[in-house]
């Protein structure tokens, strides 16, 4: 029997085990900035199941009281390795889903079932299959970095898996598949910048002499409209205002100060550089209002045109065909850990995880159980593809 067939059969045989493990992981709710004990319980659970199949597990402290700690898990010895990247935090506060695990036919709803505890459990199942079927190449390593702060932008984890990525032949990011397509992969992601503009003008009495104010509120309102107007969808660039804060409701004062925050996405490094320098020196409409900029580029570009990522995408198409799948790469607008592994030069494929939909939407986020076996077998075969090619 071919390897591919063996892998699919294995995954089909163990789909119930996959779902039992996933159910327990989903039940251990783990909001990014949630209760420390909850986060620890979820982390311990992953630590336990991965140790059971032979991974050496090390806790990597986040050193930030808002987040749980991360896990670095390694299997095998040798200089060559494949890196899996995942996160066990979810965007949901505890109790946000009416039913924490709800199954109907081939759909299962639950907090983080799709984004991305399903992908984390896939790493477990993929490794277990390769071990049990005796397919793991000798003197090669599988490394899994499981972080606790991805939904917050990976502030305390990215430095760790970036170092791992530099030493890896490929990074597989187990985030949900693009658009939930069973042949979907994410082969690039936009660069993200986050900027806050702080205005300092001159306040004045809003009845007595409003004309004497250098209004921070007016300045930032003008900036908000101007900055959003720079959005150019054809060039793959968006600017969206996410917070505007100025003045006090009901208070008879035109405020001199205020803050405006924008979320900017760029599709090329040159674009990011050009706009970053403009934002760092944003010109005020009213020269009497001083604007200072906080923030900058938060997630580097995952550039789909880079030949390193492209070569990995090409091999994924070849492997997909072994499972009758025409793999299709998409560009993700949202950022993930893949932005970081790609930017340090490690060939990266993202969106390797579950099929389903509605990430970040309470009671709606679900996975599709029909694709568990084939997607698992595909990922397992990709591990072999990378580790076998010299
Ligand atoms: Zn995610």
Structural account:
By secondary structure, this protein is α+β, with helices and mostly antiparallel strands. It folds into two domains: 3-189 and 302-388, 3-Layer(aba) Sandwich (Aminopeptidase); 191-299, 2-Layer Sandwich (Alpha-Beta Plaits). Helices cover 35% and strands 25% of the residues. It contains ten helices and 18 strands. The strands form five sheets. It has a six-stranded mixed sheet with strand order 1-2-6-3-7-16, sandwiched between helices. The protein has a four-stranded antiparallel sheet with strand order 4-5-18-17, with helices on one face. α4 crosses α10 and α5 (158-166) crosses α9. Bound molecules: zinc ion. Residues 87, 115-116, 150, 175 line the site of zinc ion.
Annotation keywords:
Peptidase_M20; 2 domains; hydrolase; six-stranded mixed sheet; four-stranded antiparallel sheet; alpha+beta; elongated; ArgE/DapE_CS; Alpha-Beta Plaits; Aminopeptidase; Peptidase_M20A; 10 helices; binds zinc ion; 390 residues; metal ion binding
Short synopsis of the structure:
The chain has helices at residues 3-13, 15-27, 36-52, 113-132, 158-166, 216-229, 269-280, 307-322, 337-343, 372-388, and strands at residues 56-60, 70-75, 80-87, 102-104, 107-109, 140-147, 170-173, 184-189, 191-200, 204-205, 238-245, 253-254, 257-266, 290-299, 328-332, 348-349, 356-357, 366-368. By secondary structure, it is of the alpha+beta class. It has two domains: 3-189 and 302-388, Aminopeptidase; 191-299, 2-Layer Sandwich (Alpha-Beta Plaits), CATH 3.30.70.
Task: Record the SSE blueprint.
Layout: H1 3-13, H2 15-27, H3 36-52, E1 56-60, E2 70-75, E3 80-87, E4 102-104, E5 107-109, H4 113-132, E6 140-147, H5 158-166, E7 170-173, E8 184-189, E9 191-200, E10 204-205, H6 216-229, E11 238-245, E12 253-254, E13 257-266, H7 269-280, E14 290-299, H8 307-322, E15 328-332, H9 337-343, E16 348-349, E17 356-357, E18 366-368, H10 372-388
Parallel strand pairs: 3-6, 3-7, 7-16, 8-15
Antiparallel strand pairs: 1-2, 2-6, 4-5, 5-18, 9-13, 9-14, 10-12, 11-13, 17-18
Helix pairs in contact: 1-10, 2-4, 4-10, 5-9, 8-10
The structure holds zinc ion.
């Amino acid at each position: 029997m071919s390897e591919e067939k063996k892998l699919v059969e294995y995954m089909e045989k163990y789909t119930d085990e996959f779902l039992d493990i996933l159910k327990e992981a989903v039940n251990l709710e783990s909001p990014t900035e949630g209760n420390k004990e909850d986060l620890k319980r979820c982390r311990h659970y992953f630590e336990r199941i991965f140790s059971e199949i032979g991974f050496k597990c090390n806790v990597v402290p986040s050193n930030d009281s808002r987040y749980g700690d991360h896990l670095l898990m390694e299997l095998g010895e040798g200089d060559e390795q494949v890196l899996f990247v995942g996160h066990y935090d979810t965007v949901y506060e505890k109790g946000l889903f009416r039913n924490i695990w709800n199954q109907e036919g081939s759909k299962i709803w639950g907090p983080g079932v799709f984004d991305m505890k399903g992908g984390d459990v896939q790493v477990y199942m993929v490794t277990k299959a390769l071990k049990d079927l005796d397919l793991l190449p000798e003197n090669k390593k599988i490394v899994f970095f499981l972080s606790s702060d991805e939904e917050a932008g990976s502030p305390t984890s990215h430095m760790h898996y970036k170092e791992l990525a530099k030493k890896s032949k490929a990074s597989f990011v187990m985030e949900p598949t693009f658009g939930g397509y069973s042949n979907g992969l994410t082969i690039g992601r936009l660069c993200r910048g986050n900027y806050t503009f702080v205005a300092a003008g001159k306040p004045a009495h809003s009845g007595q002499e409003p004309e004497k104010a250098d209004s921070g509120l007016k300045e930032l309102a003008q900036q908000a409209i101007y900055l959003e107007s720079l959005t150019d969808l054809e060039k793959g660039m968006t600017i969206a205002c996410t917070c505007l804060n100025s003045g006090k409701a009901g208070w008879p004062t035109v405020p001199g100060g205020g803050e405006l925050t924008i979320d900017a996405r760029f599709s090329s490094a040159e674009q990011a550089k050009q706009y970053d320098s403009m934002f760092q020196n944003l010109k005020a409409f009213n020269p009497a209002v001083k604007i200072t900029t906080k923030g900058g580029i938060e997630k580097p570009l995952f550039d789909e045109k880079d030949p390193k990522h492209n070569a990995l995408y090409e091999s994924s198409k070849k492997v997909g065909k072994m499972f009758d799948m025409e793999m299709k790469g998409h560009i993700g607008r949202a950022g993930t850990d893949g932005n970081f592994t790609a930017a340090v030069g490690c060939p990266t494929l993202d969106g390797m995880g579950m099929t389903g939909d509605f990430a970040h939407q309470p009671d709606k986020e679900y996975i599709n159980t029909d694709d568990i076996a084939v997607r698992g077998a595909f990922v397992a075969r990709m591990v072999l593809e990378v580790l076998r090619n010299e």
